[in-house]
Amino acid sequence: MLNFTLNMPTRIHFGQGEVNKTGDIVASYAKKVLLVTGRSSTKKTGSLDKVTASLDKAGVSYVLFDRIEPNPRATTIDEAGRIAREENCELILALGGGSAMDAAKAIATVALSGRPIHEYIRGSKAGKWKELLPIKEALPIITIPTLAATGSEANSGAVITNWETKEKSGITGPALFPKAAILDPELTYTVPANYTADGAADMFTHLYEGYMTGDEHANVQDELTEGLMRNVLIYTKKALDEPENYEARSHLLWTSTLALIGIANAGRGGAFPVHAMEHTLSAHYDISHGRGLAIITPAYLEQIVLKDRPHRLARLARNVFRVTEDNDILAAKAGINALVDWYKEIGVYDTLQNVGIKREDLRLMADETIRVGGNGTDTLVGTHNITADEVLSIFEASYE
Amino acid sequence: MLNFTLNMPTRIHFGQGEVNKTGDIVASYAKKVLLVTGRSSTKKTGSLDKVTASLDKAGVSYVLFDRIEPNPRATTIDEAGRIAREENCELILALGGGSAMDAAKAIATVALSGRPIHEYIRGSKAGKWKELLPIKEALPIITIPTLAATGSEANSGAVITNWETKEKSGITGPALFPKAAILDPELTYTVPANYTADGAADMFTHLYEGYMTGDEHANVQDELTEGLMRNVLIYTKKALDEPENYEARSHLLWTSTLALIGIANAGRGGAFPVHAMEHTLSAHYDISHGRGLAIITPAYLEQIVLKDRPHRLARLARNVFRVTEDNDILAAKAGINALVDWYKEIGVYDTLQNVGIKREDLRLMADETIRVGGNGTDTLVGTHNITADEVLSIFEASYE
What we know:
Shape of chain A: globular
Strand order of the largest sheet of chain A: 1-8-5-4-2-3
Number of domains of chain A: 2
Pfam families (chains A, B): ADH_Fe_C, Fe-ADH
Organism (chains A, B): Aneurinibacillus danicus
InterPro entries (chains A, B): ADH_Fe/GldA, ADH_Fe_C, ADH_Fe_CS, BDH-like
Largest interface: A-B, 37 and 37 residues
Keywords (chains A, B): Oxidoreductase
Distance between the termini of chain A: 40 Å
Order of helices and strands of chain A: EHEHHEHEHHEEEEHHHHHHHHH
Oligomer: homodimer
CATH class of the largest domain in chain A: Mainly Alpha
Helix content of chain A: 40-55%
Largest sheet of chain A: 6 strands, parallel
CATH superfamily of the largest domain in chain A: Dehydroquinate synthase-like - alpha domain
Structural class of chain A: alpha/beta
């Protein structure tokens, strides 16, 4: 196990009806908030009404900003930040999926400083990488996820898209930990099947990425990660079959948080190369992040992990997919097949072509993956240092 | 899964050599600290020298209070609190096992208020139970465990013994969360075999208690708990065979923290009846808490859990001890046998008689268990409400 520092300060309020405590929870931090959400789904499902009713009851006033798009954009962040400043909002309250929550973290940053979010992701290292400037302070943030997926609800990271430059960049900093996360599984009952499945693919990727690439002598983390992966398998199917099954929705929502709260990767130091590849795809094409991850994962596992660490893939196959094969190479291959079968079963198995990506853009996007995700080097960190040509090969294999 | 609130604010610094960062970590909170430890072991092993050298280097001054006894006593707490006040210490730094860390939490309480710890555990409900007064504030606390066992390093609980009344009482409150926990597995290399094993028995009990008694529809918690239990089994044996095996010591230490940081029991609402029974034993006889737990566990499982929830015991048997029996009752019995075998293998299998307890005290201690642990009722919460006669029966079965 590697040395690590772990910080999990977000207070979690989990369960049926917890959304109705929003006003009381927010009131201990702020009297006026910017309520950040997407254009339509929280209105259609009634989630927004529950939140505003609770705020009203607790005497918390709010300004609604309901224009967060999927893969939230820097220009939208800056606009919301300006409104939060003008309206003297004291806290950013996010209601929605990863987009609303990530946007809230960025808005909390620009609302306090009055500077565009671009300034926190500008800079240059080796002429390739946009170096992150430290985010030392932000308005307090509270999250209310309506989808089990990104885990953004209780960590300090966010991903923002600069649509002009086609770049998705991560921001992070202790100031971005939400003060509280309100996790009410009933809010996820109305999530459509495709989003439920895309979210599950995202969670599963959060779990396997560090497991594959990090320190291999971290059995306690391996065991926790495998347990969470098994939960994703079991309860995604159950939630797709019965969208209002509380057991399924509660397990998926809690797993999404645990998958990216830090305990799975602490002491392992794993990398996230598949995320880096997908971010280029969705920065250029605005596809669902979870769907993009599912599309390129089989080729990544076959081309990279099967060669470098078949024994890790074999362990995952045996402990998560219950593969009984003794030979590591065969078990690893069976594991990839089992994952593909699961992707098919939940409906996320797809191709880059099918989601509208043009073949002639693959080279550019492979190069962009290294430029944006390579931290100023010519490669992505993984089980080995992955080159642009290898990324292209994964994209090609995922194309049709 | 039940509704829950979860708070894990302690910042964790884990790994080889982390103890040498103590001074820098403490310096961000305080210039002068009360350094709380036991009488001898941290001096013999050199842990204390490492801590004081780091404090000196960072320019943090300290007052040493090296008189914490096993099962720390209220009178000692009050004395240490008085010294901390007189010396204007700004933080309580604990170095040691559960006794030092629990004592530090209580000292931080009395040091700030100037009131004896007894006032925080006084009061009366139904004439039986010492009602806890809320602990709203305390000096900041930092913990450095030298033993993998209690999990006190990163939670808000502590157990204090009133030796005059023979009562062990828990205290808790958000102010008691340590600001930081410095977990350096190398500090545990010198832990003697019997303490290593007692600590493992304590961890294992933290994990099985909630698992047996709490909500049964919390599979994500079950999976995490089983994974942690498997780690305890594997790495206790390894640490006993090779006391300076970093892998073994690091996994045990991290598991001790994870076992009681909240994630295993959140959403499950489990009870801790075996802990309540053991607290009476060690309040009267000053035996090791972990040893006491191991002694009474087999009878508890046979007399209570085997009747009420054989299927839970069967699941533990299958998933933790790899029992392959299909029938739940038989699997449950095999699980108890496997646990007893493990207790024997690591050297914690024992009897109440053998640790010096007098048979004629069993009735009194069974009654005391209910009086102190029953929260003002006639029973302990468990898989059913456990009576004093049932506690006596468990003690009798554990006697010789």
